[in-house]
Amino acid sequence: MKSDGGNVQKFLEYLATQQDVRCWRMNSGKVAVANRIGLPATRMVQLGPDGIGDICGVLQHRRLRWGLYFELEAKRPGGKARPTQVTRQAELERMNVPYCVADELGDVVRFLEELRES
Fold this sequence. Notes:
29% helix, single chain, Trna Endonuclease, Chain: A, domain 1, 26% strand, two-stranded antiparallel ribbon, four-stranded mixed beta sheet, alpha+beta, 118 residues
């Protein structure tokens, strides 16, 4: 079973039905890559920063002239955010960037409703 309990895919499928949302799957950490196909990995490439949400997106806000960036961290039911995710959430919220830790689809629905009403 995936560490998110399959919630990333469920959340992405729901978000794809929302006309005012554009989002994408995000990964963090590092990956080894080769300079050429068929050669052994020779360097490390940094993906997203530690703690970044599993899903990043933009909500077309009805009262703003620009989109509202947000991040969602998907957890299995009852799952808790790791320390790097808690730090990321605090950093973003200090900059008024919405960040949601969700372990069920209802959390995502409520999160979007709150963003739309803000």
